[in-house]
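Need tokens for this chain, all 451 residues.
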Amino acid sequence: MKNLILTLFALFTGTIVFSQTTSKIKFDQIIDSHFKADEPGGTVIIARHGKIIYERTFGMANLELNTKMQPGMVFNIGSMTKQFTAVCILQLMEHGKLNVTDHINKYIANCPDSWQQITIENLLSHTSGIADQPLPDSKPENVVRVYASKPLSYPTGTKYFYANSEYVLLGYIIEKVSGMPYAKYLKNNILIPVGMTNTYIQDEDSVIPNRASAYVKGKTGFRNVTLQGGPGTAAGIILSTTHDMLLWNQALVNGRVIQTTSLFKAWTPFKLNDGKLINYGYGWQAGGSIQGSPIIEHGGVAIGYVTDALYMPQEGIYVAVFLNQRSALSDFIASELAALFINKPFVISAVTLSDDSLKRYCGTYADSTGARTVTLVDHKLFYQHGSGPKLPLTPCGIDWFYFDNTQVTGVIGRDPHGRILGMALIDRRYPGQRPPMMKRIDSPDIQSQAR
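Here are the structure tokens for all 451 residues:
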């Protein structure tokens, strides 16, 4: 019997014409355009209905030992852990141990008054309002105490705001309901049954076979940051391989981990109190598409590890990109590869603007997540978030830019007098997602007004 989940998501039946030789060359070109052979790199797989169509390793796994990247290398997958945490909750729901509509005060003692209306699915969908806070450790009593010490960022259920805090609390609920540590529950109920033999729980003291080192590129070169980071939690505690993650995807769509109806709920955009849908379900981003094809996707960042995997239910395509450096974005590359695989590569026509015109956009733009700088180098604009990678920003119109080979565009906002106020980043994979504009904080116009 064909998988119910594929039927539920199928909007129409399409045929993918795939030339393995031609596509491999084009896939290689995409990867080679982002990475150098003597720098940290990564591993990529593209599969259809569980069969690997394309696989590539590139770059270095360890600079100190001059070790090249190999198939089966292990990466910290960061926030991709959240999908595992969500599935643990859904397993417990199917076993009658809890309900996602339960209020969390049923499982967490001493909840403040502001938490009384928060449900488990508010935590799953990042709609609780509980803000992130630095944690001294991962002890449940300390976690609750720290998070409860701050007011909610917004009324529960009124908006989506991504926060690790909610998944840390879900880990606590899993432990409370199952009667075992999160790591043990995960191992016994998911990793072993699925056969994920190269997937591990983060432990700084453990020796992890085939673990690639992680790097961040600074002004003087790469820094090794493999063992940096805070305490491991249910928001980001797993290390895995692209192969094991393909096993995980296949176990999910074949109904071997949770029922397909539960998975469908996890892959459905959550509805806010006002009825508006967000681009997040339970542990996955949902409601997006690549060139018209629906996608289910999530990425992870763990200091120098940058990972992403997306699934196209309509076509049965799974793409996973795991990197061991912060100078590239895995979700951009995964989307670019997926678009090429379905024969709909991203194409946006660039326009030419003079250096004088481009200089007007240079400066600093900021929001609650930090500052971004836009600079002009050799007649081309570059965008950088903090110490992250410098991304080419190509004009495709006046006040309209795109990040090369992606579906992310930057739109400039101006006041009635034509002065630049800020920039909004729009991911065309998620058309309903409209992030607030980043304010221009160093604009000469603003400075002249201040004087």
